[in-house]
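Researcher: We're teaching a course module on how sequence relates to structure. For the next exercise, students receive a sequence and then see the predicted structure as tokens, so they can try to spot secondary structure elements on their own. Here is the exercise chain.
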Amino acid sequence: MSQVSEPTAITRLLVVEDDDTIRETVAEALEMEGFAVTAATNGRSAWDLLSRETYDLVVLDLMLPGINGLDLCRQLRQGSAPPLILVVSARDTETDRVLGLEVGADDYLVKPFGMRELVARCRALLRRQRTPVMELSTLELHDIHLFPGECRVTRAGLEIRLSPKEYKLLELFMQHPRRVLSREQLIEQVWGVDYIGDSKTVDVHIRWLREKIEDDPSNPTKLVTVRGFGYRFS
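Model: And here is the predicted structure for the students to work with:
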């Protein structure tokens, strides 16, 4: 048996899958890697568990009875401290993957998949979530103020609510004003060099961030696209 140093058993995962074979196989594979795993067979029971307990990561199928996976993602993202979400689905088109990311998934894994890849993706998500934030002085640009020590952002004096990825993106842009950052650079700095998901998640998070910091998100003036190169905060 291989020795596991990371993550430990206190890392809590919820597996939400209505297929008995897949659910049991995934739960067993994750438990063997040192995770504390709870399983749910449908969206309603998953939501009940998530309302009562705290989980670090949810492995979530989309096609579920009761509450489907997309709606469950939306509900979780409205909470104050949502868990990480790894969607697993047989839907494999680009549109399906983008939709999953848009409603709040942190990563998207297409069925059928290998257990080693599933475990690797779970570990990568958790590892990036635990990366400590550097203490920096307050960053200011336009009407945006970012307070790294507090993980807090204000716009025109009013606090705005950002997800962890939105916050990290904004912090990176404000640390490098007027510099063009490519998708690859953003993934490396925000998602981590071991990220193995879809790069389109960058575009999704950029759109979400614009909705919170721009007067007109469809015609951004702060966080702009430099076609063929990436994005710039200017």
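Model: If you want an answer key for the exercise: The two ends are 52 Å apart (CA to CA). The first strand starts at residue 12 and ends at 16.
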